[in-house]
Write a structure and sequence with these properties.
It is a single chain. With about 300 residues, this protein is α/β, with parallel strands linked by helices. About 50% of the residues lie in helices and about 15% in strands. The protein folds into 2 domains: about 80 residues, no CATH class; about 190 residues, Rossmann fold (3-Layer(aba) Sandwich). Strand 4, helix 9 and strand 5 form a beta-alpha-beta unit. Helix 1 crosses helix 3. The radius of gyration is 22 Å and the shape is globular. Bound molecules: S-adenosylmethionine (SAM). The site of S-adenosylmethionine has 21 residues, from helix 4, helix 7 and strand 2. S-adenosylmethionine (SAM) binds next to helix 4, helix 7 and strand 2.
Length: about 300
């Protein structure tokens, strides 16, 4: 038996050191999550324990003094929720991901993180298609956000393209309640419409200049039906952007695939997504992944200008 193939990764003897580092990371995340939550005022810890978790947060360089209580609470919730999900996965690997994250703060943090997809599409996808920027600046421009969650990305779309009307679809009432409040807070009630609707039942034809499709959340069993529905809902010349998790290196790609699997969606290569977009009549497939500064990758395609009604 060969001891090692010797091409990639640390020698086998280093596995213990890697494991020790990972255990430190998990324990650090636990302590920092508690420190943030305690500092926000949302959790009371015994004095000695509070001091010790704060010492861990300080040691990793976190400056808790210049962050307001709401942000501390949100970040603490996110850290603790992610760790809890990882622990639940480790204990019960066969259970689906905690999709029903019910803590509103965690949903808001996840939504806010997804809002960065808007500028990435604006900067890296739209310029690849002649005429689409103009369409999105036109007074009748419309954007569809499939899997709108708490509406953070829908609001980002509305702000990036101030002429557009955005329609956000979701099947989850709890997320839509938060989305409604977010849209009011953002002053976008007149421009962002929310619908509790499964994407497979979408019956809008020739209606959108840009469709964002949250790929990791749409199960394989209904994916082709969902893609056919969004292709039909796209205006001739408009774009569908299929997004999924991605990673810049093997570890982050492996974690991305795991996240997709646990989110209920299919693990698909960019080429396979492109094929499926072509199969529903879309063309000009473009893959956008590297260098967008997000743990995500996009496959975009255009509805042909000659599409018939
Ligand atoms: C990660 S969230 C999207 C986050 C979102 N960008 C935000 O700003 O909050 C994905 C959403 O897709 C929704 N979803 C899952 N299946 C769906 C379906 N068949 N049709 C519409 N939405 C769906 C889920 O309920 C979930 O809220």
């Amino acid at each position: 038996m060969e001891a090692s193939h010797g091409t990639a990764g640390p020698p086998a003897g280093d596995l213990r050191a890697v494991l020790t580092q990972l255990i430190t990371s998990a324990e650090t995340l636990a302590a920092v999550g508690l420190a943030l939550t305690a500092r926000s005022g949302d959790l009371v810890l015994p004095a000695g324990l509070a001091d010790r978790v704060m010492a861990v947060a300080t040691a990793v360089g976190g400056d808790l003094d210049n962050v307001d209580a709401a942000q501390l609470k949100a970040m603490g919730s996110l850290a603790r929720a992610m760790l809890a999900q990882a622990a639940a996965f480790s204990a019960n690997p066969q259970e689906p991901a905690a999709w029903a994250v019910t803590d509103p703060l965690v949903l808001q943090m996840l939504g806010q993180a997804s809002a960065a997809i808007g500028p990435a599409i604006h900067d890296h996808v739209i310029p690849r298609y002649r005429g689409v920027a103009d369409r999105l600046a036109a007074p009748d421009a419309r954007v569809l956000d499939v899997g709108t969650g708490v509406g953070a990305l829908a609001c980002a779309f509305a702000n990036l393209w101030p002429a557009t009307t955005v329609v956000g679809l979701d099947v989850w009432p709890a997320a839509l309640d938060l989305a409604r409040a977010n849209i009011v807070r953002a002053g976008l009630v007149d421009r962002v419409e929310l619908r509790q609707q499964d994407v497979v039942t979408l019956a809008d034809d020739d209606s959108y200049d840009l469709v964002w499709f949250a790929g990791p959340f749409i199960p394989e069993s209904s994916l082709d039906q969902a893609l056919a529905a969004v292709a039909k809902a796209t205006r001739p010349g408009g774009l569908v952007v299929y997004g999924t998790f991605g990673g810049a290196d093997p570890l982050h790609q492996a974690l991305a695939d795991l996240r997709v699997l646990r989110s209920g969606g299919p693990i698909v290569t960019d080429d396979a997504i492109g094929e499926r977009l072509r199969a529903v009549g879309l063309t000009d497939v473009v893959n956008v992944g590297a260098d967008i500064g997000l743990p995500a990758r996009f496959v975009a395609a255009r509805r042909p200008h000659t599409a018939h009604r």
